[in-house]
Design goal:
Transmembrane segments: 6-28, 66-83, 89-108, 120-140
Shape: elongated
CATH architecture: Up-down Bundle
Strand content: under 5%
Number of helices: 6
Order of helices and strands: HHHHHH
CATH class: Mainly Alpha
Protein name: MAPEG family protein
Distance between the termini: 24 Å
Radius of gyration: 18 Å
CATH topology: Four Helix Bundle (Hemerythrin (Met), subunit A)
Helix content: over 70%
Oligomer: single chain
Subcellular location: Membrane
Largest sheet: none
Keywords: Membrane, Transmembrane, Transmembrane helix
Length: 141
């Protein structure tokens, strides 16, 4: 693997670790909530007849978020590598996207300030769109 390929793959690896971090944090929070009787453990059979504490819901929603738009990021990275179209601008944009998604998860799972979370989400989406524009231009060149 070349240096540029490695530097392009690392933000995707970082995103995978972010996803696992949120997953395990969610599991820990759910276990703790059930243990402290903040939620009836039977709720988790079908996710019915009750509600989770807000702290669990924030992590659950963030975990779901990590399987929505970030999929376009992973696909873009894979296409770039398979088609051998990597360039430094893609590396910078990929890192910017990963950092913004980490920031989004941090805001979502901590203070959950909706306006800040939304701004970071929009910015990360624009960065991802820029990645795809670069990729499309390179494909069509």
């Amino acid at each position: 693997m070349t240096e540029i390929q490695t530097l392009l793959v690392l933000p995707a690896v970082l995103m995978v670790f972010l996803t696992f971090t949120i997953l395990f944090s969610l599991g820990f929070k759910r276990f703790k909530a059930a243990k402290n009787r903040e939620v009836d453990p039977k709720y988790y059979k079908l996710y019915q007849n009750g509600t989770e504490p807000e702290s669990c819901r924030k992590f659950a929603r963030n975990y779901e978020n990590l399987f929505e738009i970030p999929l376009l990021f992973y696909i873009g990275i894979i296409l770039t590598l398979v088609l051998k179209l990597e360039c430094w601008s893609m590396v910078y944009v990929a890192w910017a996207y990963a950092v913004l998604r980490i920031l989004h998860s941090y805001i979502h799972c901590s203070t959950n300030k909706v306006l800040w979370r939304f701004r970071i989400f929009v910015l990360s989406s624009l960065v991802l769109m820029a990645y795809w524009i670069i990729l499309a231009v390179k494909i069509l060149a």
